[in-house]
Design brief:
Blueprint lengths: L6 H18 L3 E6 L2 H4 L1 H16 L3 E6 L2 H10 L6 E2 L2 E2 L3 H24 L5 E5 L6 E5 L7 E7 L2 H8 L3 E5 L1 E3 L5 E4 L1 H12 L3 E6 L4 E2 L8 E2 L1 E2 L1 H9 L7 H13 L4 E6 L5 H7 L6 E4 L9
Parallel strand pairs: 1-2, 1-11, 2-8, 5-8, 7-10, 11-15, 14-16
Antiparallel strand pairs: 3-4, 6-7, 9-10, 12-13, 15-16
Length: 294
């Protein structure tokens, strides 16, 4: 990120970051990891560097990940057809087994391994571990697709207390032990609320919330739920932007002060958001007075 810069310019970057490092020291930050940031090998390496750097300066990151494309790839290789309804994968028992295998056994392990290249810092978890994510069936027509009924954050809190980075795959279970695949955005919002996180950051494949999805210059850098409702009523926001902003609104409903939509295709996007004056992407915060934030 500093290639080609003069030494004085590099020093200025560090000075700019200093107040934010101080401000967020000790804070829990939940990062929902997905999109190209996960599937592009180079971006995946840079993501791991960012998370380890946050950890090294005293921030307490928690990574929540999905793995829809990876699940789809394995199902295709197995010759199993996939059906989607309203963007959610219909999940029978066989598909659930594949999802658990991919999310817990493959994707989670890959992320943990990438982080641990920088030292013994990361531990992988499933939402089934220590009843972290208690699930309900979302819709019988979708099969074993779940919603978050409750979060028991004790296991994550213990890992954070040991200065470790929890990496959470989004398989939950109900009281009878039946497993469900749960949308990673939903889990990130609920977990961030249960942990009292300072922020939740969603890595997406768009620059943020756009007034015009075809024009990156129409980025909305900062907004509130009431303003978003007005945008939707006026038709300014529609289509594919709605699910992305719903994730942020869900986080606020769980008590998280601020939620961010970030373009995970940008190298070191987490550092640009957390440690620069300008920030990046879209920040959604609760209505009413709020302290200034990056």
């Amino acid at each position: 990120m500093t290639a080609g810069l003069a030494p004085s310019q590099r020093a200025e970057i560090l000075i700019e970051a200093l107040p934010y490092i101080r401000r967020f020291a000790g804070a829990i930050v939940v990062v929902k990891y997905g999109g190209n940031a996960m599937t592009d090998p180079e971006l995946a390496v840079r993501f791991a560097e960012d998370i380890v750097l946050l950890h090294a300066v005293g921030i307490r990151p928690v990574v929540v990940h999905g793995g829809g494309p990876q699940i789809g790839d394995l199902l295709a290789r197995l010759g199993k057809a996939t059906e989607f309804r309203d963007g959610l994968r219909v999940t029978d028992a066989e598909t659930l087994d594949v999802a658990r295998m991919v999310l817990v056994g493959k994707v989670n392990r890959d992320i943990v391994s990438a982080l641990n290249r920088h030292g013994p810092v990361a531990v992988g978890l499933s939402g089934e571990d220590a009843s972290l994510i208690v699930a309900d069936m979302l819709d019988p027509e979708l099969g074993f697709v779940g919603d978050v009924k409750a979060v028991n954050p004790a296991i994550v809190e213990r890992l954070l207390a040991e200065h470790l980075i929890p990496v959470v795959s989004t398989i939950g279970a109900d009281a009878e032990g039946q497993a469900y695949n749960i949308n990673a955005d939903t889990v990130a919002a609920a977990l961030a609320g249960a942990l009292g996180a300072e922020k939740v950051l969603y890595l997406t494949d768009v620059p943020g919330l756009l007034r015009d999805v075809d024009d990156p210059s129409t980025l909305i850098t900062r907004t509130t739920p009431s303003e978003i409702a007005r945008f939707i009523d006026e038709g300014i926001l529609s289509g594919g932007m709605i699910p992305k902003i719903d994730a942020c609104l869900e986080a606020l409903r769980h008590g998280v002060p601020r939620a961010h939509l970030l373009d995970g295709r940008i190298v070191h996007v987490l550092l640009l958001e957390l440690f620069t004056d300008a920030g990046i992407g879209t920040m959604v915060e609760a209505d009413g007075p709020a302290e200034e934030a990056p």
